[in-house]
Design brief:
The chain is mainly α. It is 73% helix and 0% strand. The longest helix has 32 residues.
Length: 117
């Protein structure tokens, strides 16, 4: 009778690493969704100065894309998980900073629709 194979159900370190990256990407997606909602509200209920938010949004996206492309080119060939780590390192802090900034701005009342009484 052949010896029983040992089967381990513990995930490999590579699988755990991908799971961690997926969690970080999901969190960034959640933060980005709230940033999109807040920016949409600010732009939809435009008041003096809110056009700057749309300009800022475009400029930030171009700067982030340029920064990411520079990092990827300078790094040379990379494994897929390294590309994802680099992408998260570039975009996550920016998305989080925008969420904090826009949350503070909306809490202060900037962007609220004022009704005539």
């Amino acid at each position: 009778m052949p010896a029983a194979k040992s089967t381990s159900h513990a995930p490999s370190s590579a699988a755990l690493h991908w799971l961690q990256l997926a969690g970080e990407a999901w969190w960034m997606w959640a933060e980005a969704s709230s940033v999109i909602a807040m920016r949409t509200a600010l732009i939809a209920f435009e008041r003096p100065g809110h056009g700057r938010e749309a300009e800022r949004m475009v400029i930030e996206k171009l700067a982030a894309a340029f920064s990411l492309s520079q990092r990827l080119v300078q790094a040379g060939p990379m494994a897929p998980e390294q590309v994802m780590q680099t992408m998260l390192a570039v975009y996550s802090p920016r998305v989080a900073a925008n969420r904090r900034r826009l949350t503070r701005r909306l809490q202060r009342g900037h962007g609220r629709v004022r009704t005539a009484s």
